[in-house]
Amino acid sequence: MIQPADAPPETLTGYLAADGFLAPLLEELGPGVDVHDRLVLASGPARPAAWAQNIWHDVERIPIASIKDGARALKARQRNWGLWPLAHFRRAQLIQDLLPHVGIKPLVFPAPVPVAPFGSWTLAEPGLLLASPRCSSPFRHGEARFVEDRQAPPNRAYLKLWEALTVARRYPGPGDRCLDLGASPGGWTWVLQQLGADVLSIDKAPLDPAIAALPRVTQRQQSAFALKPEEIGPIDFLCSDVICYPARLLRLVETWLASGLVRNFICTIKFQAETDHETARAFAAIPGSRVLHLFHNKHELTWMKLED
Q: What is the average pLDDT value for the chain, to the nearest integer?
């Protein structure tokens, strides 16, 4: 798949697998791909790939004569570049060192997504760059990092919701009514409450006492699957981090979709030993949906459906 510099041009796409989840990405993409550690190259335009942490669009094969020539070629295409090291590490780093420095600071939530495009590149051979000036993620290599709060949240699950809201560019706020399913111990409830929303937290297990005591938080100890939408009423954000099989979550979501009471959905699709690609595709097929593997996800995907 990494063709020599004199090969005829063809559309090439790169898929950077989420760390530890190369297997589900390969299952998604199917045969005919070229695997280089976490970077998977495939002919043709980008295809749906939820398990790709970052997608390199329209990868260019750029012959270079020297380190300086490589840096010039990249700078001619755009300013911001992230090196994904595959081979020839010293030579690749020398090229990167000649590019404009881009400081990568953790985001202070809530913060806007970076708007300047961030390209990705690698050195396939000493005289051949593979470079994509346009990637799917606004973050270098798809790594959304935040200044963490290590005191208030009761667990680290809050980082998933921080990332989802940041990527969605949509935040609940004062006056919004949020439903947090599978809330215990309360990481997502804490995020929503801190943004000023009113939160109804649902879980058989109790919230952390400090979270339950926050203003605008109402706790119900019951199963998320026993809720009837008509008994809850209109919801601005339905958020779910419920531990259940994907097919069961899909049925729950379909119930709430049919009710017409929810404006925005953000749900974690959690997988057991096997990745249920069929159900993930069913989520992706819901009009207006997006399914992706967040940097802070584990063996799970995030499904989002946002009001236009």
A: 95
Q: pTM of the predicted model, to two decimals?
A: 0.93
270 an active-site residue? yes
β-strand pairing of 12-17 with 52-57: antiparallel
**15 vs 53: CA distance, rounded Å:** 8
**In the structure encoding, which two tokens stand for residue 62, read together?**
């750029």
Q: Judge whether residue 169 has pLDDT over 70.
A: yes
209 burial type by CB count under 10 A (0-12 exposed, 13-18 middle, 19+ buried): exposed
* Rounded Cα–Cα distance for residues 211 and 298 (Å): 24
Of 204, 270, 298, 305, the catalytic one is 270
Q: Which two tokens stand for residue 78?
A: 């755009």
d(CA 292, CA 270): 12
Six token digits for residue 26: 């390969």
- Six token digits for residue 254: 């379909």
CB 172 within 8 A of CB 192: yes
One-letter amino acid of 276: D
Q: Any residues with CB less than 8 A from the CB of 178 and at least 6 apart, and which? A: 172, 192, 197, 198, 199, 200, 235, 236, 237, 238, 239
CA 304 remoteness from chain centre: 11
- Kindly state the average pLDDT of the residues 245-263: 98
